[in-house]
Design brief:
This is BadF/BadG/BcrA/BcrD ATPase family protein. It holds the Pfam family BcrAD_BadFG. InterPro entries: ATPase_BadF, ATPase_NBD, Euk-type_GlcNAc_Kinase. With 335 residues, the protein is of the alpha/beta class. Helices cover 47% and strands 16% of the residues. The protein is built from 14 helices and ten strands. It is globular. The mean pLDDT is 92.
Length: 335
């Protein structure tokens, strides 16, 4: 399972990587959604995937891995107990499931190597140093309130702030601000008349955003990439700043001159060419010679890690590819 902040995907495969059943559910980060809601999403996804895998799938499970955004929350015994309880209620084979970080799964989706670095920019953002396929060190991943710099939330937040500034000025909006305002307050226009000021239009925009969940700002991130392509200076500043934050997180977990692979993962990096190119340029300055690769199918990587637990050979690169090669329609949140 690949359980991120926005989407959870469960995948059932054979030990050779043949896909038997898959299903999607909502985000399952316990830090963002709470243990109960996160556990129910996990149970929903894994239950549906097992049902689609065949009538005997549950008794035939050999091993399972859940790559969980916010996995550190499981150090709290009550959080772990609540999530396991929801999985049990959903009929999941809990005794055979192991929780790992979504960064460990994301790294495994991009390389069969056991050691290296992964940078995830999805709903949240985290860089992880991976040793023997487990996270040994991390940077950021602090959540939307005080961290996750360079994530979809961070980018969307910057876009919203820029839009509010432009609305307050009452001048013509840039492509970025125009698209953000259209998405947040569609159809609303400044009220005419001398007694009405542009700031009130900006406050209407701000009140609408404040009335929703903060994490919803992540939905504005794609608009920044679109505006970047139109040459919007504000969008270019946001993209460059986001790439700088992500690169800084990578450098925090790597040693000088290190040549181990770096895997780029998460919806922001997989879905935005401007973000991917900006980060690649910055990483090239401090990670000369280190191979860069894009994450593959993260749910498949979780299944590959589960297969390793069941005895599959770790050095079979073709087997790794069978699990992690993305298929048309693959979706991943990863953080």
């Amino acid at each position: 399972m690949d359980a991120g902040g926005t989407v959870t995907r469960a995948l059932v495969t054979t030990l050779t990587g043949t896909r038997l059943g898959q299903a999607w559910a909502g985000g399952a980060n316990p830090n963002t959604h709470g243990a109960g809601a996160a556990g129910r999403e996990l149970a929903s996804a894994v239950g549906a995937a097992l049902d689609r895998a065949g009538p005997h799938a549950r008794e035939d499970v050999a091993a399972g891995v859940i790559g969980l955004a916010g996995v550190s929350a499981l150090r709290d015994g009550e959080v772990r107990e609540r999530m396991v309880e929801e999985l049990l209620l959903g009929g999941a084979p809990v005794d055979l499931l192991g929780f790992v970080g979504d960064d460990e799964v994301a790294f495994a989706s991009g390389t069969p190597e056991p050691d290296g670095t992964v940078i995830i920019a999805g709903t949240g953002a985290i860089a992880g140093r991976i040793e023997d396929r487990r996270r040994s060190r991390s940077a950021d991943g602090m959540g939307w309130l005080i961290g996750d710099e360079g994530s979809a939330f961070w980018i969307g937040h910057q876009a919203a702030r820029e839009t509010a500034r432009q609305l307050s000025r009452g001048t013509e909006l840039s492509p970025l601000a125009r698209s953000v305002a259209k998405q947040v307050i569609p159809g609303r226009r400044p009220v005419e008349g001398r007694e009405h000021q542009p700031e009130e239009h900006a406050r209407d925009f701000a009140r609408t955003l404040t009335g929703g969940p903060p994490i919803a700002l992540a939905a504005l991130a794609p608009l920044v990439s679109e505006a970047y392509g139109l040459g919007d200076p504000a969008a270019q500043v946001i993209v460059d700043a986001a790439a700088g934050h992500l690169a800084h997180s990578v450098h925090q977990v790597r040693s000088p001159g290190e040549r181990r692979p770096v895997v780029l993962a998460g919806g922001v990096l997989l879905g935005s060419v401007p973000m991917r190119e900006a980060l690649t340029r910055r990483l090239a300055l401090g990670a000369v010679g280190a191979p860069l690769s894009m994450a593959g199918c993260t749910a498949g990587a979780a299944a590959w890690l589960a297969a390793l637990r069941a005895g599959a050979p770790a050095d079979d690169v073709d087997l790794h590819a069978a699990f992690t090669l993305p298929e048309r329609g693959d979706r991943s949140d990863a953080a």
